[in-house]
Task: inverse folding
């Protein structure tokens, strides 16, 4: 079995490789040739264990995530993750991958593909609300799918933007970065806006005039009470794009507009149907893509990482 840590994962694969893997996951979802059981959620003593399996072709993968809120008191990560990749015919363990890296990469690719399929090809400004690890990866992938010249970002909890900016400038030295004092400023200066927060109230201003004609990618909200987008957005939409059907119940950004009648089930379309050309999106209008994630992303990304790591001789082989 091959063990891959964070650095080995990053060294093994390119952004284009991850985009390819996640796009294949979207197409696989539309084909129906997979098995993806519901996520298992176990709570014990205030801590949470999440188990997310997916089966497709001759591989299956399981992501195991632990959430221990009290870890922050010990200056430890609250979330740890591992992805196990197995042979689908024999069950043989093939690889164990550091989970946070897999998650960050595949979610960055989801956002990047959202931009690729919902925005005009000539956009060059992107906005970011939420300058954390996921926000960082969203910008990396955005800069690959579009010719981005300027990034405008806002995060009220980011005391010092130096570290965030230095990381981005290392990979994207040709892009101009602008820290803004409000989400309104970000939206006003950007053609596409990515949100990567866990807010329970909209972080985008409820201003139809401000947001009309813009393009929005929702990455952050993943629970029924979380919501990053305002009512005004849904008044402008013909279609709400989602990554998986689970989004209608898992994210408040889809569940609440549905329950209040701001949108209907008929308006909701999986982005995989746009990718395989079964559906079309008018990118000249206001667009919205909401992702909550799914285990197929982890499976296809882990499989790609494993393949590339073997080709490059990366990782540590252990007898199992």
Result:
């Amino acid at each position: 079995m091959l063990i891959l840590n964070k650095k080995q994962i990053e060294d093994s694969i390119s952004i284009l490789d991850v985009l390819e893997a996640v796009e294949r996951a979207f197409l696989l979802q539309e084909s129906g040739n997979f098995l993806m059981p519901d996520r298992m959620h176990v709570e014990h003593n205030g801590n949470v264990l999440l188990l997310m399996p997916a089966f497709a072709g001759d591989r299956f993968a399981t992501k195991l995530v632990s959430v221990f809120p009290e870890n922050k008191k010990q200056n430890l990560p609250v979330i740890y993750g591992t992805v196990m990749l197995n042979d689908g015919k024999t069950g043989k363990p093939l690889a164990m991958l550091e989970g946070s890296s897999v998650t960050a990469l595949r979610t960055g690719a989801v956002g990047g593909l959202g931009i690729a399929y919902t925005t005009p090809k000539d956009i060059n400004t992107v906005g970011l609300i939420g300058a954390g690890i996921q926000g960082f990866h969203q910008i990396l992938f955005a800069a690959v799918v579009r010719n981005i010249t300027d990034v405008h970002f806002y995060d009220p909890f980011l005391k010092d933007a130096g570290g965030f900016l230095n990381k981005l400038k290392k990979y994207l030295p040709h892009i101009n970065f602008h820290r803004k004092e409000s989400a309104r400023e970000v939206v006003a200066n950007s053609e596409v806006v990515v949100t990567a927060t866990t807010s329970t109230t909209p972080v985008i201003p409820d201003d139809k005039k401000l947001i009309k004609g813009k393009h929005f990618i929702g990455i952050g909200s993943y629970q029924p009470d979380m919501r990053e987008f305002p009512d005004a957005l849904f008044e402008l939409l013909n279609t709400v794009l989602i990554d998986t059907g689970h989004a209608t119940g898992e994210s408040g950004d889809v569940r609440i507009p549905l329950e209040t009648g701001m949108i209907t089930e008929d308006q909701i379309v999986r982005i995989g149907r746009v990718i395989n050309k079964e559906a079309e999106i008018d990118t000249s209008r206001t667009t919205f893509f909401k992702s909550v994630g799914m285990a197929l992303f982890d499976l296809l990304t882990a499989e790609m990482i494993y393949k590339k790591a073997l080709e490059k001789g990366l990782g540590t082989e252990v007898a199992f």
Q: What stands out?
A: The chain has two domains: 2-102+296-317, 110-293.
